[in-house]
Design a protein that fits this description.
The complex is a heterodimer. Chain A is mainly α. Chain A has one domain (5-137). Chain A has helices at 5-24, 48-72, 89-137; strands at 30-34, 40-44. Chain B is built from four helices and no strands. Chain B is elongated. The chains are: A mainly alpha, B mainly alpha. The interface between A and B is medium-sized, with 24 and 24 residues.
Chain lengths: 138, 105
Amino acid sequence: MSCFIVPAAEAVITTIAAKAIKAKEVAPKTVEVQFDGAGVETAEKIPFSRKIKWLNNLLWGGSALLAFEHIWHGEVTPWFPFLTASGEPAQMLHEMATTGVAMSALVTCVWLGMVAVSSAIENRAVKAQPVKSQVAEQ
Amino acid sequence: MTLLITVFAAVICTVIWYKNVPKSEMNIGILCWIYWGASLMWLVDAIFEYADIGAEYFNPTPSDMLNDFYLGLSAVALGLVIWLIIVLVKDPRGVLKEVLLKKKN
């Protein structure tokens, strides 16, 4: 009925957070990496503001299509009070607290997994660097 | 059905993105985010519905299936429209800028 409001609200918060983080962020670190045995290239570590943008995109995209589904089922109307379930606030709040929170939590968990994997790949590239330098010196 | 269609759309877009990265000029990544975000949210919806009605969830009536199929296709179309608007606004290849500047000249 109104479950998409929770991820949409999270999207608003993360969008503001992303802008604030980007404003304070310093230039990203650059590392030299070797792709597929080819020559060494310079690569930038992904700044955290860009990683938060991944979460924004997931939340905004999902919320938009879910909002469309609610319009499809007649649960969202273009006139006040916009949500047909607003006549039953207890039911609406219950759905937001269960399905809505679970949606936000799952999307955030998936994003955290993506951040962990990308950080691991970046750290591996940085750690491998001295070994490559030694090989180059030899 | 809606979840299934969105997951297929997300997988197809991700494969296209993976094939073209890092030279992707069409911002296919945006489509991946939209469809994966919606898929995850509809997955939660499906889990709650399954918890509520049990195995009956996997036996929808033909009319429900048709409605969900139609909804899934419409959701995919909406995602494509959102992506197209973003691509036209960002204009990564500078095509719109070129066309508009030519008209002015």
